[in-house]
Specification:
By secondary structure, the chain is α+β, with helices and mostly antiparallel strands. It has 2 domains: about 15-50 and about 155-295, no CATH class; about 65-145, no CATH class. It contains 9 helices and 4 strands. It has helices at about 20-55, 70-80, 95-105, 110, 135-145, 155-195, 195-205, 210-250, 260-295, and strands at about 55-60, 85-90, 120-125, 145-150. The chain has a 4-stranded antiparallel sheet with strand order 2-3-1-4, covered by helices on one side. Helix 1 (about 20-55) packs antiparallel against helix 6 and helix 8 (about 210-250) packs antiparallel against helix 9 (about 260-295).
Length: about 300
Amino acid sequence: MISFLGKSPELQLEKDASSRYLPIVIAAMVFLASLALIGLFSLHSAVQSWSSAVSGNLTVEIAYEDGVDLDKKMAKAAKFLKKFPGIEEVNPLSIDEAARLLEPYLGRADIIKQLPLPRLIEVTISEGSSVDLLATAKKLSTEVPGAILNTHRPWLDKMILLARSVQFLAAAIMLLVGVVTVIIIVFAARTGMVMHQAIIEVLHLIGARDNYIAQQFQNYFARLCLIGAIPGSVIAILTMQLLSLLAGRLEAGLISAPTLILEGWIALAMVPILVVLLTTVTVRWIVMGSLKRMM
């Protein structure tokens, strides 16, 4: 039995210059695949976070009007909303609170407060309750002219569509990286077969079986790929941590740091293992096919 971590005893594949840089190429491929995988799971977490944040929350906007007491209109709208069954909480936002919400996007809060801002009311719907939002919006606009009820659903649908499109792109990148990796391994294995054809023929003459020769090739290339795959995964994780640090410093609500759930970490840890398995199967298939043609 040939050890996976040992050297090929007869073929001496370790001396081949053609496969010397294979670990570097595999490390780059694993790095790209891991980044795509991180992006895929991070977007999934972001979509879940957006959905949980938006569902059950509404916003009432009181349009700005010159010479109109907006505080009075906001108080009237809040009193009207509290009467509706199914509404758990009504929280009118002061001009200072609204300015602080816009500060990450528009700049200093003291300057924002001088702008003709609409007044906002946060509305929380009780869990499990059903509220007729269309009827509520009509009654509210009739009771308080200029009041608009926003459900955030159109915005959320557009964000989810964008996230799903990026996830599809990430999956396509992973598929492309996998195909390129297989092509690289195929060329490396075939080159090794050509370089060692004379030795392989001698081994055949002294009774060596195809399985024995194929095992030397597959173990050698699997070992090279493992040497490249592990650093590629580690660099991808470090890159994710760096992006998380930079995103945290931005302090922007829509730009969240890349995070992985448990399933994401498991999938990321499986990438080097899958690369080794893919390499083993591919090299065995190439070598066994070439050996049959030699006979």
